[in-house]
Write a structure and sequence with these properties.
The chain has helices at residues 24-47, 76-104, 113-122, 137-149, 187-210, 217-227, 237-253, 264-271, 275-286, 289-292, 301-305, 308-311, 338-343, 350-370, 372-375, 403-411, 413-419, 441-457, 486-495, 527-538, 560-579, 615-620, 626-646; strands at residues 6-13, 51-54, 67-71, 124-130, 328-335, 380-386, 389-394, 428-435, 462-468, 474-480, 545-549, 552-556, 587-588, 594-596. With 651 residues, the protein is of the alpha+beta class.
Length: 651
């Protein structure tokens, strides 16, 4: 039997593409573009006579990961052909966006083509690794990781101001790249030109949507006005024109707010979500069908999903001062330890299991997209970004969603949404942000990413709750899923008998940690717990006495007070679980795969010399380790602060 040959191809943006996204529309746009470029690579590989191991279901574009595993003989020239096809698709995207702007805003003199061409040529790094016959997929993955360490990218220089979103690149406007005497540079004039350009562009994006249908624009306006319970027939011509301009402005601002100043990549991510521009891209794509193939049908979903009619309730720029602004919940998540799972597979099974894993995740992503309203109880939407990445928003269009509603939805996320009816091979970590009404969307998305990373760093298979105030300050509490998800707790208690599932003695109901809370009057008022912790903190009751450790003076905290608070407010059963130091740290199997998620997470956070098979070492001395006691106290303190915010009634 001939030994198989594998090639791994991946690509990465020179500037972060998804990570740098600062608005939800950016995330949608970047997610679809990444998926499209992955799809192009898969189709090009098949043209070379190869098969694609991962991603599975390559005829479905949405949610494609950017690492492609190819089976078959693929020469260096073949890889070069795939790379050429990849860059062709990207240049069609950039040229489509630029040409549409130039064709629709003809009053400007454009000097920016060279900068667009540079982004067309240098926006991405393309990596490939070809294994030898007999090399495993894991071997070739190691090669691609080595290739990614040798970055070879070209930075794009510019003159002038940087974008207001990322601050990393030049503002895209018609005079970008214009040559001139630096001594005659007029900053005020440039700012005026940029402002005027984005005002005109925003209005044009709204105008072409209003005029898109073969019906008159008045017919479209009539539908909109009926939705707002206004009688179109009773309006004068002047009032109709005024309403038309209002809708043009509203539609346009859902793509670009007039106060924004975007770089070329940021502008591309916005424009490609516009139905008219997407149609133009499809036309240009099909002009190159001999090399690119047919246009992927389900890419059209991006325009309908981001239609201003369905997307306007998430626009956090509210120009009307009297318009009600609400707190909203945002969450971002990612699978845990996929790399370790693949490494645990034998050479004989890794191809089949890799393909199966990819198929499971893509089926999950498709299911998530199709049934997100069911999963979120019609209180938000989710984006499947590809692979095992996802993002969601929890909100109600016409009222303030309560933080308790968000908490209830996320409490069952692992068992109800992540695993569902079919257990995944890996777990997930999620960062949730309960964001103030005045916090800009770009800041929320940044905090979502940070909260997710916090969940990862604290030990994975957990959720980080972050309360983000309008001032920019925040509170955070991180816990394992089994603290909230009772199905997960049932599974954990089956595998680890030292954890007993708490039940309400009166109702015989299984209650998670938050639901088990009782104040001193046997009610659900978190103010008691919150105020007790605040008072104890103000008196430094958690700090303990000063002591010398490694020639440094440190606080030597005690955990008796924190444990007493758990017993008082959450009952004896949860006290027994939380007080048991065996439940504090992660545990791992012989393949270094996490099999138990501890409250405090990685043991190495507290003892760098502690290997995963020496958990008992740190458990035994945990009460003698001041870092562990401090971490436990912080966990209880943050539970009080964040729990108070997530259980209050928002007006």
């Amino acid at each position: 039997m001939d030994e198989q040959t594998y090639t791994v191809i991946t690509f990465a943006p020179v500037q972060g593409f998804i990570e740098k996204s600062r608005k939800l529309r950016d995330l949608y746009g970047s997610s679809y573009l990444l998926s499209l470029l992955s799809w192009v690579i898969c189709q090009a590989a098949r043209k070379q006579g190869c098969s694609v191991v991962s991603p599975a279901s390559i005829n479905v574009v949405q949610g494609m990961p950017n690492q492609i595993i190819i089976k078959g003989e693929l020469s260096e020239d073949g890889v070069g052909e795939i790379k050429s096809t990849f860059y062709l698709a990207w240049r069609i995207i950039t040229n489509t966006c630029r040409e549409w702007v130039e064709e629709n805003l003809k009053e400007w003199e454009y000097t920016w083509k060279r900068n667009w061409d540079l982004w067309g040529n240098y926006a991405w790094e393309f990596f490939s690794a070809r294994g030898k016959p007999g090399d495993s997929i894991t071997d070739v993955r190691e090669l691609i990781n080595q290739a990614k360490n040798s970055r070879d990218w070209t930075g794009i220089n510019w003159q002038g101001e940087s974008s207001t979103l990322s601050g990393a690149d030049a503002i895209a406007y018609p005079r970008l790249g214009a040559s001139g005497d630096p001594r005659k540079y007029n900053y005020q004039q440039e700012q005026t030109d940029i402002t005027n350009f984005y005002q005109q562009l925003s209005l044009k994006l709204g105008e072409v949507l209003i005029q898109e249908n073969s019906q008159s624009s008045a017919d479209n306006l009539e539908v909109e006005l009926e939705a707002e319970k206004e009688d179109f027939s009773q309006l004068s011509e002047e009032e109709k024109e005024k309403k038309k301009q209002e809708f043009i402005q509203k539609y346009g601002s859902s793509f670009i707010n007039v106060r924004e100043q975007l770089s070329i990549p940021e502008l591309i991510k916005r424009l490609i979500t516009h139905r008219i521009i997407l149609a133009k891209f499809k036309h240009n794509f099909l002009q190159n069908r001999e090399k690119l193939g047919e246009f992927p049908v389900n890419l059209n979903r991006i325009a309908s999903e981001l239609s201003p009619k369905t997307f306007k309730d998430l626009n956090r720029h509210k120009d009307e001062a009297e318009e009600k602004k609400y707190w909203t919940g945002w969450f971002q998540g990612d699978g845990d330890g996929a790399g370790k799972y693949f490494k645990s597979l034998s050479k004989e099974e890794e191809e089949q299991e890799t393909n199966k894993f990819s198929e499971e995740m893509r089926d999950w992503g498709n299911e998530l997209t199709e049934n997100q309203r069911k999963y979120l109880d019609n209180k938000g939407r989710m984006i499947y970004a590809g692979g095992d990445d996802f993002l969601g928003v929890l909100y109600c269009p016409d009222r303030q969603i309560q933080p308790k509603e968000c908490l209830e939805l996320l409490s069952n996320f692992k068992s109800g949404i992540w695993h569902g009816e079919k257990q995944k091979k890996i777990t997930a970590s999620v960062g949730f942000v309960w964001a103030g009404s005045q916090v800009p969307q770009r800041d929320i998305l940044q905090h979502c990413h940070q909260a997710e990373q916090s969940a990862k760093k604290k030990g994975r298979d957990r959720i980080a709750f972050r309360v983000l105030f309008n001032s920019g300050n925040y509170l955070e509490w991180v816990c394992p899923w089994w603290v909230l998800d009772m199905q997960d707790l049932g599974k954990v208690s089956h595998d680890f008998p030292h954890i007993k599932v708490p039940t309400d003695p009166k109702k015989q109901e299984v209650l998670n940690l938050i639901e088990s809370y009782q104040d001193r009057n046997y009610g659900k008022n978190w103010t008691h717990f919150y105020q007790d912790v605040a008072l104890l903190e103000s008196r430094h009751a958690f700090d303990g006495e000063r002591t010398i450790v490694d020639e440094k003076s440190v606080n030597n905290p005690q955990i008796d007070i924190a444990l007493s608070l758990i017993k008082i407010y959450f009952g004896w059963e949860w006290y027994e679980i939380i007080a048991n130091t065996n439940n504090w740290f992660n545990q791992y199997d012989e393949n270094d795969i996490q099999i138990f998620t501890g409250i405090l997470g990685y043991p190495k956070l507290f003892d760098s010399q502690c290997s995963n098979d020496l958990i008992d070492k740190i458990v035994k001395k945990s009460k003698d380790t001041y870092q562990v006691r401090k971490a436990f106290n912080d966990w209880v303190i943050n539970l009080a602060k964040v729990g108070f915010r997530l259980t209050e009634d928002k007006k």
